[in-house]
Amino acid sequence: MNAVDLFATLLAQRGRVQSVEYSSFPAYDDLLKAGLVEETGVVSSMMCNECDHPHDAEIVYEGSQYGYYCPEFGFVSKPRSQLIAVQPNLGTFVSQIADALDCKRRRSSPLKNDTWRIGAIESAAGDVVLYLHPSLQDARDIRDVQAAIASEVKSPFGVILTSSGALTAHPFVTAQLDDVLSFDIKAGKFSLFTDIRAIAGVPEQRSGGRPNGYRQPLTGLMALRASQGRTLLGRNEEAKALQAEFAAKFPDEKCPSLSAVRRYVSEIKSGS
To answer: Are both 99 and 123 inside the same structural domain?
Structure first.
């Protein structure tokens, strides 16, 4: 499980969970070091699997031991190391994404309950507002989002980032974290490898010449490959790999020619 998938999994829990369930993944330490997840005491309850009827049991501290009571077995002790709680640090996450996009109208606390406004970016057709909600899987999720954004400044475009689910809160678009984010292990930061404006449905602005439609997605794919240590040394080899990934990631788009991809690889690496 990579860092994006792990963060999304923890986000979907909407609270503290046992770290022991996730701490074996290498990405766990990367997220913990980056401050994107935080260990906070011990969990308040856990599932009892000792008896024939598994049940949720409240964690108690008794006789210098942690544990819980089971109707069949009485007090069941558990080492503290198995009860350490972990949860996403959403304040740090929201700040990272806002920094990466140079957002305005940022907010450092939830709008309401689990809904966050990350911020807004400008486009020629109006502001694009970026929100975060743990999941968009049922009617309750949609009601929660709609209640949170009801008093927001109206914007023509918006994207709601989520861990799972594809329901939408009209007129905004839903995007799952693993479809838009990459994680740079060295920097300890998330970044977006897709154009939020394009996801939001902002009309493409044409001016005189042919628009450069490949630079943004290719730049994002190169950044993703670099963060995962998959960048190839040779320009031709990297261009072929990028062309294949572009075709897989954007099956409905016309794929750039290999010569065009090689040119972008050279330009992006040189920073021009």
So the answer is: yes
Instruction: Indicate if 28 and 106 belong to the same structural domain.
Output: no
Query: d(Cα 143, Cα 138) in Å, to the nearest integer?
Result: 9
Is residue 79 a part of any domain in this protein?
yes
- Tell me which of 64, 88, 112 is where a domain ends: 88
* Confidence at residue 159, expressed as pLDDT on a 0 to 100 scale: 95
Residue 251 has pLDDT above 90, yes or no: no
Do residues 161 and 130 touch, judged by C-beta distance below 8 A? yes
Q: Quick one: which of 231, 235, 232 has its CA closest to 223? A: 231
pLDDT reading at 234 higher than 80 = no
Does the residue 206 lie in any domain?
A: no
- Euclidean distance between CA atoms 13 and 36, whole angstroms: 15
Lowest mean pLDDT among 9-18, 27-36, 117-126, 216-225: 216-225
Q: Domain tally for the chain?
A: 3
| Assigned domain for 194 exists | yes
Does residue 251 fall inside a structural domain?
yes
